[in-house]
Amino acid sequence: MVFKCLYCGSSSINNNKLSFHSFPKDQRKNLWLSILNLASAGQWDKICSNHFKSQDYYVHGSKKKLVYDAVPIQDVLKNKDENDSNQVQSPETPLYQSKRYLTDKYVI
Fold first, then answer.
1. Spatial CB neighbours of 46, under 8 Å, sequence gap ≥ 6
2. For residue range 29-61, what is the model confidence (pLDDT) as tens digits?
3. Domain count, the chain
4. Cα separation of 108 and 102, whole Å?
5. Is 37 left (phi over 0), alpha (psi -120 to 50) or beta?
6. Structural domain boundaries, residue 43
């Protein structure tokens, strides 16, 4: 199956290392749309992994999945591993700490 990112247009045909994520079905969908400045998203629309940080994933079996409260970013992360390696996690921070994001209109 071929997937295409609704935001940047990246396709699974051009890059098989990308993963594609459906929009949430609850109120988080409106936050995603607002962050990406999109009017709407259909049932089959996806956002590619270039719009998420590595901290937004957890491993489930052999697959990487988005944490429940992950939110996309507008910038495409071309050097994803390089960007994430510059961030040091504090030893007192739990590995699966719940993330909270504060925006002008929303608190998740």
1. 3, 4, 5, 6, 20, 21, 22, 23
2. 999 999 999 999 999 999 999 999 999 999 999
3. 1
4. 7
5. left
6. 1-108
